[in-house]
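Notes, Module 5: Reading structure tokens.

Key idea: the token line is not a picture. It is a compressed description, and you learn to read it the same way you learned to read a sequence, by spotting repeated patterns. We will look at two proteins. The first is printed below with its tokens.
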Amino acid sequence: MRTFQVHEDYERLRIRIPMHPFILPFLQIITRLIFKRHPIKDGIINVKKTISGYDGHSIPLEIFGPSGIEHDVPCLLFLHGGAFALPATGYHKKLMCDYALGCSCKVVFVDYRLVPKYPYPFGLEDCYSAYKWLLEHAEEHGIDSTRIGICGDSAGGALAAALTLKIRDQSVKAPLFQLLVYPVSDVEQTTDSMKKFVDTPIWNARLNKKMWDLYLPKGKPSINVEYASPLQAASFNDLPKSYIEINEFDCLRDEALLYNIKLEEYGNEVTLVQTKGTVHGFELNYNSQYTQKIIKNRIEYMKKNFDHIESSNIHPC
């Protein structure tokens, strides 16, 4: 492995996701146990729901919200990362609790279906079903349907971007913003960062190819390709505000930069945050002061949009 000038807080993050179809089902079981056993922060109320998906499949949801808030509350639809292959893990639960407390909002977590058993479009359709359910049932859960944001990291970022495109195309009520954290966005995998970062910690170009092979086992779809690979969209018109965060040492870096450019070319409002010294999944060192600074930046953006405040104090990290 080459040496990169990684921030000192992330130098020891050497975890790799084994993208092997025979190993992944066991990792999914283990990861779900980790998530289930991870404690919920004080001051958070957790409610579990099950909804029906587009094909009748039962989709588990969890709602995280600060105690004491009940009516007209903003809401974040949270789509976790994990290469379309792994469930949410412990730091995702920490993030959801911190987002809920920091933004005084409710967070709806979608436990969407995963590869290799469920390739595209199952995960996306689960997320779309969850968004429509959220709109239909917002009032009974004390949620203000005019203040809903969509958030996703990594593969969850791909799902968030694709979901936002699908919402637009289906003329469904649009979210207030999309927050894309080091998102997957391009099946072509031809950017400079994809060619350069083939052995970076946690995630790299080699694993990225394996991910796409599992997510699109039949190859790139001939229609609605943007719902699998958002950068391939024919149009980026009429999309909500976007926050895009990228890591310095991440094979996904340049495709996220290209997504930012596409959105801006079509006149969309975009906040781009380029973090320094970071690697994919750096939140594994959750207690790092630098990690907390980056998370605070996200919360600041979401809170200002939920509160309809025009000015912003979002800074490069």
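Here is the second protein, with the sequence above and the tokens below, as before.
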Amino acid sequence: MSARLILASGSPIRRNLLEGAGLSLEVEPANVDERALESELKGKSPAHLAQSLAVAKAVHVSKTNPDAWVIGADQVLDHDGGVLHKAPSGEAAARKLQRLQSSVHHLTSAAALVKNGQTLWTGHDRAALTMRPLSAETIEAYLAKAGDAATQSVGAYRLEELGAALFERIDGDYFTILGLPLLPLLAALRDQGIDPIVSGGQP
């Protein structure tokens, strides 16, 4: 039986990115109390927070999957010195967009590769996004069209969909914005002998 590659995240976007890059993997979302861990790391940088959460998720899943390579991932949005989380409702999403409009916010995406509870690699990347001015009418119309995307993503938008129309400028890696430092992660997997071109994505 061949070894396994597991994504410790329920994000369909992360799964699509990895499978699109040719990897064969399983999905097992980690049951980690992110807000409790974030509270323990209060005052740490967004990069430290994102990497710590990515490692915690991968280690959690690794404990019950011996000999599997486990990928953990996390994304942190920071704006004006504060960390913002997913909006629990459409009303909260509207407030978030009102806060983010006409300003720059940052997305830090981190990933970790763990096997048998040992962290083999961690990496992160940061992108800056400038949201254009948005009227209350525009925000209302956007949320009506965006649907569940407004509460399923940390910024209340999906850049690969209608959310692109909210922005004036983007500085950074596209994959990072979608939630994964994909190219560094693929390099780390190649170091472990997992190459989707040579081995078909099989560990």
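Summary for the second protein:
- The two ends are 11 Å apart (CA to CA).
- The first helix runs from residue 12 to 20.
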